[in-house]
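Anyone able to model this chain together with S-adenosylmethionine?
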Amino acid sequence: MKKGQVYEGTIESVEFPNKGKVFLPDEDKTVIVKNGIPGQKVKFSVNKIRKGKAEGSILEVLRPSEVEIEPACTHFGQCGGCTYQNLPYEEQLKLKESQVKAMMDEAVDGDYVWEGIKPSPARQEYRNKMEFSFGDEYKDGPLALGMHKRGSFHDIVNVEGCRIVDEDYRKILACTLEYARNSGLPYYHRMRHTGYFRHLLVRKAVKTGEILIDVVTTSEYDFDGSFRGDKWADELLALPLDGKIAGILHTKNDSVADVVKDEGTDIVYGQDCFYEELLGLKFKITPFSFFQTNSLGAEVLYETVRAYIGETKDKVIFDLYSGTGTIAQILAPVAKRVVGVEIVEEAVEAAKENAAWNGLDNCTFWAGDVLKVIDGLGEVPDLIVLDPPRDGVHPKALEKITNFGVEKIVYIACKPTSLARDLEMMQGRGYRVERMACVDLFPGTVHIETVALLTRKKDVERIDIEMTVDKEDVTEKATYQKIKEYVKEKYGLNVHTKYIAEVKRKHGLPMHDAPNRVDVPKRAYLGCPEEKVKAIEDALRYYNIII
Ligand SMILES: C[S@@+](CC[C@H](N)C(=O)[O-])C[C@H]1O[C@@H](n2cnc3c(N)ncnc32)[C@H](O)[C@@H]1O
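re: yes, here you go
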């Protein structure tokens, strides 16, 4: 088999996210062909062979799959955004569920409850955010504004008929494209690093109907003079929209990276935020802060998280990777306290404001990298919710998270491959997967959210003592001194030896006066105050005595 060779074959299955498998009997080889659906007979060319593995790209669909339908979107196939518009929604769900389930069956040790896939309440026009790119339709062609063409680095497909956003987006897109074309200014060329127009960001709340529009350009031309940004805003404001424009913005971005980056945002009209409602709570959303892109689907996702976390009364919950604090605030009304950690400061500020609006005074939000701040929060959680970005949790952060030894962790993953990798480490550190479900927030596309409930294994303390702690060290009186110093320094608390003994007993740890008795009878309850129990537990984790 050589690069450039053309073959025909049938896609037997599709692995997450879009890896179709075609077996070629004559070559006795399976080739990965991207972006097809199971059952399609395709003609493809081989474009990569590495370490004996071959990849190809589809040139033509010779015979459709039996379940295939006419896609509602006229850009389907050309636009790189959607992959499954040609499958009935039920089939999309089946395919995504089987992909994730197969991956999880491999990643999970032992039995777990698979709860299937929950559909998105809206199957079309469900997105509350879209980032469109400027470019040309083809080399040196007219200015275009839309999505990247499938498989192309440069070409942009105008997506005036896009079905995953509603009519308001389509009107805003068409208006901006026409205005930009008439301005005669060039798009930003990603290889030459010259030009002006980069992206158009549109966000629209499903519940409040508020719309935020942001054009992202370089500073090569003058927004007011050359582009006449005020006139663009007038044209947008004159559009007959269902929703209401809350703000029109201009963001400058001169960086060479091809991402929407905020290097300064000016308000052209209205305000630089808008509001959405989820499960009866109100959320302020700023242009660049994370918010689930399918509001109705997000409600299903957060309901699942709430059900998985279970009883939260009198519990301290950590919401790690908290964005604008949605999960924290959904859990706060029935928890003792919720602590959110998020790296984007703007999102943290919004989270604080949101909590105040929603009348929640038991939420605290910290700005910073989970890895760096998690052990300096001065709190010990009872439960943890993790909703990391696509790459999952940094291994060192995961180590610290599991070190808290909480009873339950709920992990929300937008990329199941990252979850599968992180599960391996979490299972190795004393957790077991209880249940899992998928929630489809992205109909028509390959993406899917997966939620996993992990609980701490009952016998983990003892296993870990043997694995990580030298018995001498745990039983030595010197350890008591180390724990006292740690608690004093970190929490400003003095703890008596009898309290340390009480907490050790709670965890079934050997006592210094009875080194061979791990299961010390639960005799005296000495009344160690709860904050000291938590502080001592933190110290025990710090010294790897419990996890
Ligand atoms: C998938 S989002 C989840 C947001 C939130 N839980 C929600 O449902 O809206 C992941 C969030 O993690 C944040 N993030 C990424 N890396 C981070 C890090 N190292 N430490 C803290 N937050 C991070 C991102 O800014 C983003 O807001």
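The pocket of S-adenosylmethionine is lined by residues 290-292, 321-324, 326-327, 341-344, 347, 369-370, 387-389, 414 (CB under 6 Å).
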